[in-house]
Known about the structure:
Elements: H1 10-20, E1 24-25, E2 27-33, E3 37-43, E4 46-50, E5 55-60, E6 62-63, E7 68-69, H2 71-79, E8 81-86, H3 92-98, H4 108-111, E9 116-117, E10 126-127, E11 132-145, E12 148-160, E13 181-182, E14 188-189, H5 202-209
Antiparallel strand pairs: 1-13, 2-3, 2-8, 4-5, 5-12, 6-7, 8-11, 9-10, 11-12, 13-14
Bound molecules: flavin mononucleotide (FMN).
Amino acid sequence: MEIDINALPPAEQYKLLSSTVVPRPIALVTTISDQFGDNAAPYSFFNCMGEDPPVMVLGLDTKRHGQVLKDTTVNIRDNGQFVIHLVDEPMAEAMNICAIDFPSNISEVEQAGLTLTASRLVRPKRIVEAPIAFECEKIAMIQIGPTRNIAIGKVVRMHVRDGLLDPVTNYINPELYRPVGRMFGKLYTRTRDHFEMVVPSFEDWEREHMK
Ligand SMILES: Cc1cc2nc3c(=O)[nH]c(=O)nc-3n(C[C@H](O)[C@H](O)[C@H](O)COP(=O)(O)O)c2cc1C
């Protein structure tokens, strides 16, 4: 089956993309508004795009069919700073509450029962309960369509919940870190089912599989 995706209405394009590019990590993003204060919202069009510099991207949609920018978009555009928190199993319910379309003057973090503390280098506060937080400075905000912006940010500080990092390898311990992934709609996945694969060297591959 072949699909002319650009010929479909945006809502159908969204279904195809959001249900195939899975599971997606979830960024719970805190930002600040001079007028309305602290803001938090989840974004799963999100990923890390590289190191040196450490770069994060967020895909920001609009509300009401392009009529209204999301608070996160406005705040990143205006203030240039944000904090990305990875969402783990204990935080999943609170993340979901942060997705409610509250009026701008209501704090999602307060409604979700999460705790904010000052960030080290950026104005938006960070969420204490999060296993991982990345303080970010905007590199660019790119409008890619009438209803879509992409925010690109440089990580200027990282916070890791005590006990998660293996100090010898500098990897997070995958047995202790339980991020959830977004499938689509109301469907999520846990990340407990790990398996290993090692990329063989060319020499090993040649010896074992090629004449
Ligand atoms: C798990 C999850 C992932 C989401 N991912 C996105 C996303 O990638 N882009 C987006 O525009 N909205 C996404 N949303 C919807 C926003 O979180 C929602 O519109 C929120 O109210 C925006 O809040 P804000 O106006 O405070 O930024 C997601 C919602 C959930 C529950």
